Amino acid sequence: MHAEIIATGSELLLGEVVDTNSTFIARQLRQIGLNLFYKTIVGDNEERMIEAVKIALNRSDVIITTGGLGPTIDDVTRPAVAHAVGRELEFRSDLMDQIAARFKAYRSPMSENNRRQAYVPAGATSIENPVGTAPAFIVEQAGKIIISLPGVPREMEYLIEHAVLPYLKRTLDLRDVILIRTLHAAGLGESRIDAVIGDLETESNPTVGLSAKAGQVDIRITARAATPAEAEALNAAMEQRVRDRLGADIFGADDDTLEGTIAALVSSRHQTLASVEVGTGGLLGGRLADALGAAFRGGWVSTDLTLHDLDSTIKLAQQVRQTQASDLGLAVVLRDTPDGKGLKLLAALVTEGQPQTMERGFGGHTGLAPQWASTLALARVWKYLSAR
């Protein structure tokens, strides 16, 4: 049994608004053990919405729509769902009374077009919306369930938590939970990690998946079980298997950040860190300042791209360490390759001992290069500190 989300609104397709509703719903469905297999975004067009609902009915058990329940002509969810299941729209006086009461409470006049919101597909179960003016509804059709919710996030979230989840758990007799544990690795690319734990990615429960980011790879472990404790135990066992193979490259889990992990290590050693960066626009210093606080001694950002070797980068790291009176000095240079066909990262970490250096080529989208460069440089700092 699985679910599908249909988010409607031309503003979503135009990129004017980010679809945060689907993310929220996905996480809530996970808590009750209902798999989410598909997500569709449809503009404010009734025919395309009808088509999306029909497709969903053919492949999913539960369809949750968000948006399109307002009073205007371009709010097409009500007629589209009715058409998709072969029903007429019917007027509900109880819904009209709820809408009128809401406007009265808001001390705002109700327009005639708000009557549209009192229409739902014939036979639908209405869901009162105490935090907004758009009633939601549930249609049960040939063993399938369609739940239509407002697109306003505050209203949608309230109805999901107080009405939809209890209904789904009761109706579908959902007893399982789905828990996710995400490990964060830095310094290794996705393909190299896959080569090490590829066999674990074929497991069925928990499942293991990879998500590549700029300079970082997330390893997602997902378990399904009857209780949270059982799911946590499954995830813990798989996590240990992953760490047995990649432990030296895993810096944290879930909400941990690379800079936050470094901050904890620096603080425990009563050390300080200063940085200088070229070609990254200050991203490195910003990340360090936010995480380290007073343990970050600052530094500077340069646009001078004349540096071209590790020796020059090491000298920069030494200079910022001395100038800022810091225990650690970190220099990062991101510049064009000599042939002009790519970017090159030069990084140096200077301490009382031998400088730690890095030289890497970058072949991805240039917009991601600063994030990639700062993450790899921080990974080098983390590995140095964690090995001490």
Q: What would you say this structure looks like, in words?
A:
This protein has 388 residues and is an alpha/beta fold. The protein has 3 domains: 2-172, MoaB/Mog-like domain (Molybdenum Cofactor Biosythetic Enzyme, Chain A); 177-253, Alpha-Beta Plaits (2-Layer Sandwich), CATH 3.30.70; 265-386, Alpha-Beta Complex (Maf protein). Helix content is 39%, strand content 28%. The strands form 4 sheets. It has a 6-stranded mixed beta sheet with strand order 2-1-3-8-7-6, with helices on both faces. It has a 5-stranded mixed beta sheet with strand order 14-13-15-16-17. A hairpin with a 5-residue loop joins strand 16 and strand 17. Helix 2 (20-31) packs parallel to helix 6 (153-172), helix 3 packs across helix 4 (77-84) and helix 9 (258-268) runs parallel beside helix 12 (369-386). The radius of gyration is 27 Å and the shape is elongated. The chain starts with a strand and ends with a helix. The model has no long low-confidence stretch (mean pLDDT 91).
